[in-house]
Amino acid sequence: MEHRYESWRRRVDGELGSADFEEELVHRIPVGVAEGVRIEPLYTPDHPSTGDSASRGLPGQAPFTRGARPARGSGAPPSGASWSCCARYCTDTLGQLNQEILDDLAGGIDSLWLEAGGNGAAIATLDDLDRVLNGVLPQAITTVFDCGVESLAGAALLVAWLDEHGFDPAGLDLRFAADPLATLAATGRLPAAWVEIDGELAALAKYCSKSLPRARALVVSTLPYHLGGAHPAQELGYAMATLLHYLRVLSAHGLSLGDAARQIELRVAVDQDFFMEIAKLRALRTLWSKLFAACQEEPSPPPFVHAVASGRTLSRKAPWTNLLRGTGEMLAAVVAGADRITNAGYKDGSPNPSALSRRIARNTHTILAEESHLGEVADAAGGSYYVEELSDRLARGGWAHLQEIEGRGGMAACLESGFVQEEVARSWGGRLHAIACREQPITGISEFAQLDEEVEECQPSTTEASTTRPESGRVLPRAAREPVAELPKQGECDLPALIAAARAGASLSQLAASQPRTQNLRAAAIPPQRDAEPFERLRERAETLSKGGLQAKLWVACLGTTASHTARANFARRAFAAGGLATAEATVEPSAEAGTEVAQLSGQFARSCSPVAVICGPDESYRAQGHSLARALKEAGAQQLLLVAKPGAEEEAWRRAGVDRFLHLGCDLLRVLEGVLLSLEARGLATRELGESS
After folding, report:
1. Is the peptide bond preceding residue 351 cis, with omega within 30 degrees of 0?
2. 202-255 pLDDT, tens per residue?
3. Could you tell me which of 128, 165, 561, 673 has the fewest CB atoms within 10 Å of its CB?
4. Is the pTM of this model over 0.85?
5. What was the pLDDT predicted at 518?
6. DSSP string, 620-671
């Protein structure tokens, strides 16, 4: 019997005739968005790249491609969410932070990701934790206490607080999120040498393994690389290289690979490319299993995956579209089987997200779990030949990146040498090109921008939380919190001693300063990027012009009848709106008298006082009078002249006629808008100087 794919392919090739299958029917993801990924029009069981589905196992079984949890009937949750609903906090005002936490817990969140120190909340002492966690029952939630490079000190502070209030840390679900490699990538610095940092990691992991059986000490985070512009295969490779670095550190300090793995969780960003992100999370678990197999550790423990909605995809000029982006990213994470998910609020990026933003973010969890029942489906994407093939491609790409990093000395060496930063920057350059040319469109920003959109500013709640703590905990008198215990001697990673010092009143910075610090590590930081930011900067420049009393509006000459020029006029209107620019369209009735239309349009432009003119119309009008109109507009004072069309072989002739830029599908819209704004700003500067001199 003939194979289905081969039979289908022969028929398609026959229908295409001389046309090329690859050019006509295969879609290639833009460079920077993915690496070497091609999407074919059809996938079948016998597709050459589909592979053996049996090698992917079952949910809850190695290689964990289909999820780390077993299917229903084998230990899965009976109903509701199969993932932990996590909210992220970094607000500076501690009373407000407490109110946000209590509101989120009442709204259904069961995991708190509390960032402190560095770029997080100003939590320095047990008194600060009293204010932040007032009314919180740690035994009912997962607490992620993320203190960056001060993770050992942060763990001591949190454990001391729990002990003080009568909670048994050994029975609590705690995460300390130590990830110095990600910190180095994001900030470009670490306060100690690797041997000292490794000692702190090992001390924290050993303490958790021995005394906190439900805790995890480390996290492998891809967020700095993702935010910097890395594509999925790079994220996977960096995650595995980081994981391998930490496994080596912990095993060198006496932990078995299995015990070391149980101290590590994976944190990965989820973008808006739905199927790509599903495949990325599936490939991440596959690579986890493959890495342990390569280390002769089989079967490997299942990975714990914390998916975080991407901050790179958020827009600030069209925040309501972020609701859809966050929902799609959450859906991808759920379908891919993430264990913990953090959704992005529609106004994330603000230091004080609004109460409405936080409410919508947590309610999205509830709708997906309780109304859509997505938690009741195991590996919803499994069996999709497209997703299976894409998962395999990403896993192979991630493994190739891991091998390259290992060949260059490992993740730490590649960060210090700048290799990773260069690769991420190169990927962002490719992604930025795709954004500029709108191969990677951004709804509400580069496509369908609404310049008159008004977004209600929902202020955050500033209500201070009650200072009365529930009976579940005990608050020591403030006077008893004076630093009376000695800190560990410099060079000792003694967590019990740090806990005792924290209970005696030592601050987070004092605890961190007691650790060995003989050398500062430096590397190039990976700057965070946002897809919408280049267009948003242009819109801000246009808004500045308008606020200065100058009109950010372009004059558009529409040739031909309304029916013939409407399509291109609408295209131009939407394109200019991406840069915050409105259009004023000028039309005249077509006249049989030669030159009348050109004269009327050029005269209107001369009276408009605009430095930029745009010619828009059908191809037949361009051929008949486009060149003469271009010359007339230049003579009338157009500093920038644009043509809405792809010039093709006529480009040189159009440029001789005076056209400076061409606006069409696939053009570098960022460059076009930049040139237009420069002309408008130059006219505005000249106008101001003229007004001042007079």
Report:
1. no
2. 999 999 999 999 999 999 999 999 999 999 999 999 999 999 999 999 999 999
3. 561
4. yes
5. 81
6. HHIIIIIHHHHHHHHHTT-SEEEEES--GGGHHHHHHHT--EEE-TTS-HHH
CA separation for the pair 411, 242 (Å, rounded): 6
Q: How far is it, in rounded angstroms, from Cα 417 to Cα 438?
A: 33
- φ and ψ at 8, to 5 degrees? -65, -40
Residue whose pair of structure tokens reads 């308008």 in the numeric block: 546
Supply 248's token pair. Answer: 């080596």
As given in the structure block, the two tokens for residue 570 are 């609408």
Residue burial 588-614, b: 16+ Cβ < 10 Å; e: rest: beeeeeeeebbebbbebbeebebbbbb
> Is 423 within 8 Å of 293 (Cβ atoms)?
no
What lies within 8 Å, CB to CB, of 189 at 6+ separation is: 520, 521, 522, 523, 525
Q: Contact 446/435 with Cβ under 8 angstroms? A: yes
- pLDDT for residue 685 is more than 50: yes
Q: How far apart are CA 474 and CA 469, in angstroms?
A: 8
CA dihedral defined by 383, 387, 391, 392, rounded to 10 degrees? 70
Which one is predicted more confidently, 596 or 447? 447
The residue type found at 602 is S
Q: Which residue has the tokens 């994981």?
A: 243
pLDDT band at 66 (very low <50, low <70, confident <90, very high): confident
Q: State whether residue 530 is helix, strand or coil.
A: coil
| Average pLDDT value for residue range 662-679 | 95
Q: What pLDDT sits at residue 48?
A: 66
- Indicate if the pLDDT at residue 459 is higher than 70: no
The β-bridge relationship of strands 521-522 and 305-309 is unpaired
| pLDDT at position 670 over 60 | yes
- What is the three-class DSSP state of 104? helix
Phi then psi for 608, rounded to 5 degrees? -80, -20
In the structure encoding, which two tokens stand for residue 145, read together?
């206490």
Give residues with Cβ within 8 angstroms of 370, minimum separation 6: 80, 81
Q: Do 284 and 305 form a contact (C-beta atoms < 8 A)?
A: yes
Q: What is the mean pLDDT of residues 43-66?
A: 74
Q: How far apart are CA 562 and CA 556, in angstroms?
A: 13
Give dist(CA 686, CA 393) in Å, integer. 56
Question: Residue 490's pLDDT band (boundaries 50, 70, 90)?
Answer: low
What digits encode the pLDDT tens for the residues 152-189?
999 999 999 999 999 999 999 999 999 999 999 999 99
Please give the Cα distance from 115 to 89 (Å, whole number): 6
State the pairing for strand pair 553-558/582-587: parallel
| Phi, psi for 176 (deg, rounded to 5) | -110, -10
Ramachandran angles phi, psi of 587, nearest 5°: -135, 155
Q: Which amino acid is at 487?
A: L
Contact 183, 512 (CB under 8 A): no
How do the domains of the chain map onto residue ranges?
A: 4-39, 80-453, 533-693
The 3-state secondary structure of 436-496 reads HCCCCCCECCCECCCCCCCCCCCCCCCCCCCCCCCCCCCCCCHHHCCCCCCCCCCCCCCHH
Q: Give 658's contacts (C-beta < 8 A, 6+ positions apart).
A: 630, 631, 633, 634, 638, 641
Residue 132 CA to residue 508 CA, distance in Å, equals 15
CA gap 383, 58 in Å, rounded: 11
pLDDT of residue 104 exceeding 90: yes
CA atoms within 13 A on the CB side of 172: 25
Q: Which CATH architecture has domain 80-453?
A: Alpha-Beta Barrel (3.20)
Q: What are phi and psi of 637, to 5 degrees?
A: 115, 15
* Partners of residue 488 on adjacent β-strands: none
267 contact partners, CB below 8 Å, separation of at least 6: 177, 179, 219, 220, 221, 222, 223, 305, 306, 308
